[in-house]
Amino acid sequence: MPLPTSDLFREASRSTDLLDESDLYLWEQEPPYDYPEPFMTAQEVRYTKNLVDVLLGRRWRLAKAIKDNRTLRFANGKVQELMDEIVEGLAVRIHRWSMVASCITEVEANRNMVMADCWLRWQAREIFTDIEEVKALKNGENPYCT
For the chain, which residues make up each domain, given as ranges? Predict the structure, then answer.
């Protein structure tokens, strides 16, 4: 999943200082979403795209904090503990992703569906990243030196 390149994404990926993230918690929950749908005018389509950009920027920032924590734990020699934790989390995430994906059946491009797709894609991205980390750790490599 390519990440956005917008200023909103970049700002949200760096800090919470300049953006209002107060309603993003609504979209951090698992889909399906059943929030009231606005009529999808050009302005609402743009708003939804901006919402996705900010949400992905926030998720990127939070993922970086997790990676920084894992890097520190790796440097402190807690490799097996770290790997066990990632593998355990993977099992839960894959199961959740499968359950949510099977519930998302609408094809209409409304805000709830766009945001559900965003959630599914981000989860898939994190699952892939975690699998790659585990592979590197099992091979005695450092997945955190980038």
Answer: 7-138
